[in-house]
Amino acid sequence: MSKKIEVCLTPALIGLYDIEESIVVVIDILRATSSITYGIDNGAKAIIPVAQVEDCLNYRDSGFLLAAERNGEVVTGYDFGNSPFSYTKEKVGGKTVVLTTTNGTKALHLAQKNAYQVVIGSFLNLDALCTYLQNQDKNVLLLCAGWKDQFNLEDTLFAGAVVNKLRQNFEHFDDSSVAAEDLYLLAKDDLRKYLRKSSHSHRLAQLNIEEDVVFCLQLNVCKAIPVLEGERLVALKN
């Protein structure tokens, strides 16, 4: 099978792609998909992405952990937001988390409507993800969550890293894949330095969470690949 890989640079463009036979990789590096990956790797039973903060309240009496973030900050009254440091074994092991974020959960819900399969990508599980994708006889769409439907650098850099690793396994690339890979090759020797240019990096710096940014740019500290099954993200069983 001749497989193609494409990069959707913002959720606003996903309607332009035919994804019924594609594995969609949702990418929100700072910080939703990094935290989801870390949480599932640390033994979270499931993570349930919901669109709105109010949707979390439907689970108030479920015994689940409730996580809500808007504009980079924890929503008042919730257990935590989307800092990866909230998704340690001690906090989430064996538990279910209900999560809503500014960009990542929106992208997940858009992908869920039509995709063959939806998985989660981050630098934390880059190699595990790429190994899985190259072994599937499916097209791949790398969906960048962006920032409020706008292009962002960090998600595009990760998409470029995936393209770079999978280049030998796919025959068809779109122009956004070429651009993403070129950006990644410019930045790969010092991702943090390159991302100091990004608007979201500046946004997060104002919130004094530099540790989160550095953590999310680590390579291959996780083996887990979160996959959407129904309404829940769980660990993919290879």
From TrEMBL:
First-level EC class: hydrolase
Keyword presence, Transport: no
EC number in record: 3.1.3.71
Catalytic activity: (2R)-O-phospho-3-sulfolactate + H2O = (2R)-3-sulfolactate + phosphate
Keywords for this protein: Hydrolase, Magnesium
Cofactor: Mg(2+)
Gene3D superfamilies in alphabetical order: ComB-like
Pfam family, one: 2-ph_phosp
Family note: Belongs to the ComB family.
Annotated protein name in UniProt: Probable 2-phosphosulfolactate phosphatase
Organism: Pedobacter vanadiisoli
Upper taxonomic lineage: Bacteria, Pseudomonadati, Bacteroidota, Sphingobacteriia, Sphingobacteriales
Gene assigned in the entry: comB
